[in-house]
Write a structure and sequence with these properties.
Helices cover about 75% and strands about 0% of the residues.
């Protein structure tokens, strides 16, 4: 079986040689630029790993893997416009270089190109297309929930977990199940690896919430406390509010929505409340539950244990980010 590093290299080589020679140039340059940012290439890697795990040839899954990565970058490009983000992976975002209208149009073109690559899949195409289409729609639903949460003060933890399932976990699950479908896995095994992806996606996002408050900036790759500064409704905040006394709520109200607060003071005060209410432990416990469910799903998949090794290794690498 291929290693994680080799699969990453193969995917990057494929993306680098796609090439766009069509006009107008300014429609395609932003696409090449967005894909040049790099990244973990996690989603296409999961597709190829799953395909190989079930005895398939990774070349048979390459087009759908590239389509999934193109789609993922489409969502990042549009997210940057909606979030008015100036930088991604240390580089100016597409809308900062070419303007919002160009970024939206190039993002639309990326979605169409993603479908072009997905539809080139030769094995189980109907199931692959149905899964991919349902996943793209679910991600839009998750993004809408996330935007609505910004203006609501009654968001529950259950609603938050459903939002991150839709916005983050379903694409990881889709990536895995797609590889399984291309390889001809049974419906039972394809469903099991899908649920594995859901649980790992939930654990990954919960860890992201923890790292934003408690992580090492050098390892995490971005400044700590960003979610606190912008009052983002994370698992930590929602759980803290649920556990708060009236005095705790009064303290939170001093900081949430306070645009005049000094950022470092706000981060320190809110983190102190999190520490008092022990919400990091709550998040870590739920992470552990999600991880256990994922391992149970993997155990139920009917392939030799040695074929699961690379997926386990990648999962441990993802969940093992330093706090």
């Amino acid at each position: 079986m291929n290693t994680i590093d080799l699969l990453s290299h193969i995917i990057n080589e494929k993306l680098n040689t796609l090439g766009y020679r069509r006009n107008p140039e300014n429609l395609y340059l932003p696409i090449e630029y967005a894909l040049s940012f790099g990244g973990k290439r996690l989603r296409p890697m999961l597709t190829l790993i799953a395909c190989e795990m079930f005895g398939g040839n990774i070349e048979d899954a390459m087009n759908v893997a590239l389509g999934i990565e193109m789609y993922h970058n489409h969502t990042l490009l549009h997210d940057d416009v909606m979030d008015k983000a100036d930088v991604r992976r240390g580089q100016p975002t597409v809308h900062r270089k070419w303007g919002e209208n160009s970024a939206i149009l190039s993002g639309d073109a990326m979605l169409i190109l993603a479908y072009r690559y997905v539809q080139r899949t030769k094995s189980n195409l109907d199931k692959v297309l149905e899964l991919f289409t349902e996943t793209t729609l679910q991600i839009c639903e998750g993004q809408q929930f996330d935007m609505e949460f910004e203006s609501r003060d009654d968001v529950s933890v259950d609603e938050y977990m459903e939002m991150i399932r839709l916005k983050t976990a379903v694409l990881l699950a889709c990536s895995l199940k797609t590889g399984a479908l291309v390889a001809g896995a049974s419906d039972k095994d394809a469903d099991s690896i899908y649920e594995y992806g859901i649980q790992i996606g939930l654990a990954f996002q919960l860890q992201d919430d923890i790292l934003d408050v408690y992580g090492d900036e050098k390892v995490f790759g971005k400044k700590i406390g960003g979610d606190i500064i912008c009052d983002k409704k994370t698992f930590l905040l929602l759980t803290a509010l649920k556990k708060s006394s009236s005095d705790d709520i009064a303290e939170f109200n001093k900081w949430i929505g306070n645009g005049d607060a000094v950022p470092c003071d706000k981060i320190k005060a809110v983190t102190a409340l999190y520490d008092k209410l022990e919400v990091r432990k709550d998040a870590e416990n739920l992470m552990a539950q999600c991880y256990k469910k994922a391992m149970d799903c993997l155990e139920n998949i009917n392939v030799p244990s040695e074929k699961k090794t690379i997926l386990l290794s990648l999962t441990e690498k993802l969940i093992g980010r330093s706090v």
